[in-house]
Design brief:
Helix 2 packs parallel to helix 3 (43-58). The chain has a two-stranded parallel sheet with strand order 1-2. It has helices at residues 13-16, 19-29, 43-58, 66-69, and strands spanning 8-10, 35-37. The protein is built from four helices and two strands.
Length: 72
């Protein structure tokens, strides 16, 4: 799902399948308003998402669901 006016950050998690690399990529490249693409079929991606959320929350980021972003 892509939303107009929003940046999308492709982590290539499906390719690396390495939790630390995925987290590093997210933290290094994320900008306010980004939508971070991860694939929850890989345990490494789920672990990376949880770690990245913790790190980014400490940096002041907030998170919303895709439903909260959708335009009526």
């Amino acid at each position: 799902m892509i939303f107009p006016g929003k940046s999308n950050e492709d982590t290539l998690d499906w390719k690396t399948q390495n939790t630390k690399k995925i987290v590093r990529h997210i933290v290094k490249h994320v900008e306010p308003g980004d939508i971070i693409l991860l694939h929850d079929v890989f345990p490494t991606s789920v672990e990376a998402a949880l770690e990245a959320i913790d790190i980014l929350t400490k940096q002041g980021y907030t998170f919303v669901t895709a439903d909260e972003l959708s335009i009526d």
